Every structure is written in C-alpha cells, then in structure tokens.
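dumping this here before i forget
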Amino acid sequence: MSEDTGWIKLSRRLLQSKYYLGEKFTRSMCWIDLLLLAEWRNERSFYHRGIQVIVKRGQIAISLDDLHKRWQLSVNTVRSRLAEMQKDGRIDLETNNVISKITILNYEKYQGVDYAPDIVESIDTATVPKAVPQEVVPETPKPDTTENKDLEASVPDLPPAPRKTQVDCNFVLKLYHHICQSLPKVLKLSEKRKSKIRVRFDEMEQDFQIMQTVFEKAEASNFLRGDNQRGWKADFDWIFANGQNWVKILEGKYDNQPPTEQKRYETQSQDRYAKRRGADAAARTSEDYSDTI
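structure:
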C-alpha cells in the first residue's frame, strides 16, 4: 500500500481538545473540521432562533458567522473556502435566512461501515502473514460443578458500573466564553461545575452542536443579557443548573419578541402622565412666584 492510499481514523473527541480551536484554520483543517462536524446519525433536529432545523446524515447546519469565529477567518474567506469545496465536488451548500446547511458529498462512500471496493482491491494480499499451525494441547478435564449450579443461579449478576461521561469541561468553558461574551465570566471551574457539565452534556445527547446553539441563543437574548425589570443576567451556573433552563433557551422561550400592543399602550400612557405632571409642576411654580412678588 502506497503512502497516498488507505485510511486513518479520527475521533470526534478531537473537537474537545483545548488545542483544536483558537488558531487560523488552513484549507485542509477547514475540510477536516467539516468532516468531524457532519451528522453521523440518520437524522437529527434542533432549534435555531426558535425555528426547527432538520439535519440528515453527512450534513452540517451552521451559520457563516459561526464558521468565521470557529476558523478564525474573515466571513469572505469562509465563503471562498466553501466555494472551493463546492466547485471541486466535495460539498453542496444551501443557504437561507435562518442557517447554512452544508452536505458532504459521497459521505457514505468514505464514512460508511463497509470498505470501499476500490480500496479493498488495492490491499496487497502478499503482505498478509500465513497462519502458523499451532500445537494441539489436550483439554484438562473440568471438575463436576453440578452441586454449585443451583447456588450460582440464585445469585444475581451485579449491574455494570455506570460509565463516567467523557467531556472536556475546559473546552465547554472556553466555548461559553467565546460565544457568551455579554454574560458573566467564570473564574474557576470547580468540581461541582464539572459534574453539572457532564449531566447536561448527557441530556444534550453528547452533542456539542446543541450546546453551541444554547450558548448562541443565550447571547442573542436581550432578557438573558439583563434587559429586564430586575436587571438580572443569566450566567454559566444558571444555564447548567438543571435540565429545564437550557431546554427553555433551546426552545426559544427567551428569544427576543416584538413589543405587544399592550406594552406600547402602557408606554404611551406613561409618557402622557409624565407630561401632565411636568405641566402641573410648571404651573404651580408660576403661582408660587406670583404670590411672592
């Protein structure tokens, strides 16, 4: 097999590495990043700005602004890189006013479970070592354990120990600071916060695309940024506090809404009341001055 053929495996955990983001992406890095971000399940849906987006296997739903931040390149350069990939037949690009959808062409050919036929035929069978005959060793007779069978059957098997979710908490914090620049910063990543991240990451089906969408919608929300009567701001701990807060953000409960007719009426009433108070105050002032003259 020559150096320019064959395959390698790349784990998607590479996306969680603290060294993965933060530098300008080359053309090759942009292509590899799209392969890592591509949806591997048959279909997945999520909400972006309150609108449901359906992503099929081999597709990526992401905005040009997100790619610009992710790749550390200008928006025009991102457009140019995508146009190059589209021209040479690697991707298909579909854009609308909600989000851009990138389709990796021939995704199944290169990422499917089965080997590609042309690759299988290129393997040099001469390099495969022949099986070496092994010496047959007679089996040692096993002791009769009939008496213990009933006892063993009565003892239930222990359940397997729960596997700890593998997630780079430092990467999650870096992603939060990168996107949610209007929200309070986190100074220390405590063990309690790491535990919350693992639980929420499991609830998000271990999908960083969902987590990124939650951060984007939180940053875009005027209410969560403090534009409310109390002046309250959402923060990292509030987003990860329970299984309801991040879901409400994802479902658009805190999206910016146009002012209702009632709010406009209340604002106009307050303005008229303020003007009347100002006029009354001016009149009383004139009367007070006339009495003293």
